[in-house]
Structures are given as structure tokens and as C-alpha cells.
Design a protein that fits this description.
It is built from 19 helices and twelve strands. Helices cover about 40% and strands about 15% of the residues. By secondary structure, the protein is of the alpha/beta class. The strands form three sheets. The chain has a five-stranded mixed sheet. A five-stranded mixed sheet has the order 7-6-8-5-9, with helices on both faces. Strands 11-12 form a two-stranded antiparallel ribbon. The chain is globular and about 65 Å long. α3 packs across α13 and α14 packs antiparallel against α15.
């Protein structure tokens, strides 16, 4: 009796159609496995970095970093968006809708201490963007009664307006913001009581329109809105903030806390691009080009000639006061590294002003807050890699140009005992 052979015993994959089918299945399995392995190592596309700005001349570092292709140069995709108000910028940074923004350098301290937001909310300062370039604008009612830098004439005119109209109103842009502090310092220098004048908050691009309809008697804001008021004949420049404090800190790159922690290299590349833009902007030969770009509708939406003039230090004052020329203390963005270093002493000074002017009832833990919110080590790392000089003047005593009261960041309490309220 013959035994029937089982062919599959000698050919594990079988023969004929069965063999071809199993070979095809094996090949497909191998291809799928290879695809899975390769997809595991394929880099995940990064989300673009979202940076906001307010329509002001000192948004130039972020705008020009975008326009000059510097973000792309450093390998980071950035979306730049125009925002409506500083409160809007604050909220979007805190929620992560924005990764960072052109911002008032004092905003993180105002928010954290509860002056301008929910106490304890953290916003981080990565670097400084600019110094100088803000102004106090007074309405036409003050024309001929108060002149440029004529501080001793302001209080009598304010007193007369209070008697006649019962109210005098000045505007700032954000509670505890830089414009708030420059305005209050100006009022103190002029001898105007902050209890007699009403201080309101208006977004920067809306200042001129509000003064035009009589909603305020004066305001403090960044350029070009001081220059625009002069051009439109609705007000005049009483003083520039660099007259109050030469080379005062102004705008900063402020970032979302989670973004700073989870995308550190992207933040460094953003900072490098902006730092290069700041260097480019400090070349006077580039300022005409910058003015033409940032004046466009997607950005500041203001006359390029006004932006350019004040960028170059040429201030038409208004009210037939002629031209004031600033030679070394107009708006600056780099100044060989002196501008961009985020100083903790300036943070402590700002918080001391909150106590001085009654915005805070008690002194905060100045140093702990400055240490928490200022990313000084990260800036030093970026500056070193870019061979940019790092100043060594932080935490040393200083005074303002007009107010000679010495401020020692190691002892704010002593300053508060003697400074004029």
C-alpha cells in the first residue's frame, strides 16, 4: 500500500498559489514594519511661534525680524499678529494663545503683584527691546500756558481747569505699565496731585482719537502717537520720557511660561533674530526703511514721515514751539548691548513705584519676584553665543535724570522714605 505524500511538509510556505500569496503577505508585512519604524524617527512638525505686538514704533524689533527674514535665518517659523490692547496681550500670553509679545517691560511685575492682573500669574521677560521714545502729550487747552519741559507751569493750569471744569483727566495705557509710571513721575515732578486728577486707561492706538473728542487733557504713550497728535494739531509734546529718565527701560520680549520651559531652543532662536534686528535698527541708515515698513496698515498704520522723524530724534513739538532734536537719547534698540540686557534693578524700581504711588499697600518681595520673572541667564547665553556685550551695572544704585533721588535696588525701603510722592 502506497503512502500519500504531504507536499506542504517539505515546503513550509506551500507551493503554487499558496506560496505566492504567503510571499506577498510577508512582503507587505515587511513594508508596513519599515514604514512604522521610519515614521517613529520622522521629526514632528513644530507649531509656529506666535508673537504679538501693539501698534507702536517700538514694535520694530519683532516686525523687522520678520520682514528681514531673520526668524527664517535662525530656523524658526514665526507668525506675527497685531493686538488691540495691552490687556489683550496679557490675556493671550497667559493662556498660551500667544507664545510671546512686544510688551511693556513692567507688565509682568504689574500682573504678578495684582496691580494689572490676577496676583501670582507669571509672564517671563526674555530680553529688552527698546529704551526711550515715549512722550507726555497735552491738549490744545494747554497751548501758550505750558511750554516744552516747563514743569512749574503745569500745576497752575491744572488747578485753573479743575476750578472751571471740575475735572482734569490724563490717560495711561495699562495699570502699572511703563506709561502709567512715566505719567505719575511727571505729575510728581510738576506738583500735580494724583488725587485731584483722574487717570484712565486707553489703548495706545486710540489715544489720538480720544483726545480729539475731548475725553482727556493729556496722555502718556509711545510713538508715533505723540507725533501724530502734533501733526493733526490736536495737542503738543510737553516732554519726552527720555527727558525724565535718559535711556529708561521701555519694551521687552515677554513670553508664556510654558513656552519658555518646553521650547527653550526655539525661544533662543527667536531672541537671536530679534537681537540682530535691534542691531540693524540702531544703524541710522536703516531707520527710513524701517519707518516705511512699520507704518503700513498691517503694523502701526501711521504716517511714515512721523515715525521716521521721531525715530531719528527730530521732534516737532506743536503749538508753535518748533523742533527739538535729540542726538543720543532718542528711541534706541541695542546701543552695543546696553539696551537688551534685562536688569533686575529696573524691575525692583518699577515695583517700588507701585508702593510709592499707592498701587500696592505693602512692599512686595522685590528680589524673589525679579528672580522668578526675568530670564537673565537665558539672555546671557544668547548674548554670549552672538558675541554681544553683557552690561555689568545691574543691582547698582542709580537715579533718574530729573528726579535725582538715588534708588538702591538692594534697599528700596530707604528710597521710599525720601522720594517725593
Amino acid at each position: 500500500m502506497k503512502t500519500k505524500k504531504n507536499k506542504s511538509f517539505f515546503s513550509p510556505l506551500g507551493t503554487g498559489g499558496t506560496f505566492k500569496k504567503k510571499s506577498l503577505l510577508l512582503s507587505m508585512s515587511v513594508l508596513v514594519l519599515i514604514a512604522i519604524i521610519f515614521s517613529a524617527f520622522k521629526p514632528v512638525a513644530k507649531e509656529p511661534v506666535k508673537l504679538g505686538f501693539i501698534p507702536l514704533t517700538d514694535c520694530s524689533p519683532i516686525v523687522m525680524a520678520k520682514e528681514l527674514g531673520l526668524f527664517a535665518k535662525y530656523g524658526v517659523e514665526v507668525i506675527v499678529t497685531k493686538e488691540t490692547s495691552w490687556a489683550n496681550v496679557r490675556d493671550k500670553i497667559l493662556t498660551g494663545e500667544l507664545d510671546g509679545a512686544h510688551c511693556l517691560y513692567t507688565m509682568p511685575f504689574s500682573v504678578y503683584t495684582g496691580v494689572g492682573g490676577k496676583a501670582g500669574d507669571e509672564m517671563k521677560i526674555a530680553m529688552m527691546l527698546s529704551v526711550n521714545g515715549q512722550a507726555i502729550t497735552l491738549s490744545k487747552d494747554f497751548c501758550g500756558k505750558v511750554k516744552f519741559r516747563q514743569m512749574n507751569k503745569v500745576a497752575p493750569v491744572v488747578a485753573a481747569k479743575l476750578k472751571a471744569e471740575k475735572e482734569v483727566t490724563f490717560a495711561k495705557t495699562f495699570p502699572g505699565g511703563t506709561h502709567d509710571l512715566w505719567l505719575r513721575n511727571w505729575m510728581s515732578l510738576c506738583g500735580v496731585s494724583q488725587q485731584t486728577a483722574k487717570i484712565i486707561t486707553i489703548p495706545p492706538p486710540q489715544m489720538v482719537a480720544n483726545m480729539k473728542v475731548g475725553n482727556m487733557d493729556g496722555y502718556c504713550v509711545g510713538e508715533p502717537w505723540g507725533g501724530v497728535a502734533v501733526k493733526q494739531g490736536i495737542g503738543f509734546t510737553q516732554i519726552a520720557t527720555q527727558d525724565i529718565w535718559k535711556d529708561h527701560p521701555e519694551k521687552a520680549l515677554v513670553v508664556n511660561k510654558k513656552f519658555s520651559e518646553e521650547r527653550r531652543e526655539d525661544l533662543k532662536n527667536v531672541m537671536k533674530a530679534i537681537l540682530e534686528a535691534c542691531i540693524w535698527l540702531d544703524n541710522p541708515a536703516n531707520r527710513k526703511k524701517a519707518a516705511g515698513i512699520i507704518g503700513k496698515t498691517p503694523y502701526v498704520n501711521a504716517p511714515a514721515d512721523v515715525i521716521e522723524a521721531r525715530l531719528m530724534g527730530n521732534y516737532e513739538l506743536g503749538c508753535d514751539q518748533g523742533l527739538q532734536i535729540y542726538t543720543d537719547d532718542y528711541m534706541l534698540f541695542h546701543k552695543k548691548g546696553m539696551v537688551n540686557f534685562p536688569r533686575k534693578s529696573y524691575a525692583i524700581w518699577a515695583m517700588a513705584q507701585y508702593v510709592r504711588f499707592g498701587l500696592l499697600k505693602e512692599e512686595p518681595d522685590y528680589k524673589a519676584i525679579a528672580d522668578k520673572l526675568i530670564m537673565q541667564d537665558l539672555y546671557k547665553e544668547v548674548a554670549t553665543e552672538m558675541k554681544v556685550k553683557i552690561p555689568d551695572d545691574d543691582m547698582k544704585p542709580f537715579s533718574l535724570t530729573m528726579d535725582k533721588t538715588v534708588f538702591n535696588p538692594l534697599n528700596p525701603a530707604e528710597y521710599l522714605k525720601i522720594v517725593k510722592k
